[in-house]
Design a protein that fits this description.
Length: 287
Amino acid sequence: METGGDDQTPSVVHARRDDATMTANSQGKLPEQTHGAPDGNRGRRSNAFRPRTNGELRFPQRLSLVAASPACHHALMQNLSDVTLRRATAADLGAVIAVIYDDPPPDVRGIVADVGQARAIGALGVRHGVEADIRRTVVAELDGRVVGIIETMRPGDEPGMSLPVMLRMLRDGVRIGGPALLARYARYARARARVQVEPAPGSYYIAELDVHPDHRNKGIGGVLLRYAEAAARADRFARMSLGTRINNPARRLYERHGFAVVQTRTDPAYEQITGIPGRVLMVKTLD
Ligand SMILES: CC(C)(COP(=O)(O)OP(=O)(O)OC[C@H]1O[C@@H](n2cnc3c(N)ncnc32)[C@H](O)[C@@H]1OP(=O)(O)O)[C@@H](O)C(=O)NCCC(=O)NCCS
């Protein structure tokens, strides 16, 4: 991701242990007992992280100090107990693909023949930087394994998809699924364009947020969102935005983090292909 943009900075920064806002036991196991998971998950999951204070995650005080310096965004990547956030590298590509495509998103499932093909197509997108471009992606690691990712964009960031990339993707896509896949994709792409929501003008945009299916509902998505918010605040953004499927349960997570729907786009053909009525744009205003 673009934050920091300072190649001399370390890609991982560990907060002091006593700065950590979530706890886990010494074997790296998550606590059995929870007093209210991050994001107000109502404490109903035995494997949820336990925030140290009153049901709310908090960042360490010193975060506000480093946040004052745009060159120090790397320092926002905190070691929150056993979850470490760091900038993605090319070596993470395989893990990033697994995080997003071990459980392929429903819209991709709508155009491919099977899960294997969904993974292969998804891998194309990630390898070409169309999704989770490593230049602006931060990964969450648990016990040394990448378990979550967040890709953020700022106004002016180049989109991952350019004409040459699109042509390469089409060529490789035909190799994976033949002309039939190409035809299905073309129909999907037209419908997808009709439900596309654009980043709110001037906003810090969350382009991608995924946690591996084996590690969902433990608070890692919330940690990544908190990171993004801290980075957005550090750069004095007035708001954040993101687009998601109308029927994505993740909307609850976003709402708990203060995002609200400001735009809804539906399309019958898109729903017919994907089973998803459309997409929403959600915005959070930063004070
Ligand atoms: C959305 C996602 C990143 C959240 O990560 P997480 O670590 O599970 O999140 P947390 O544990 O902090 O919060 C739990 C919340 O995540 C959301 N969530 C959980 N499982 C989910 C799933 N399979 N799909 C979508 N959202 C899910 C719910 O809002 C849940 O809150 P709830 O208690 O009201 O049900 C993760 O579930 C995921 O990768 N989902 C699939 C991909 C996706 O939909 N990404 C968002 C695209 S905009």
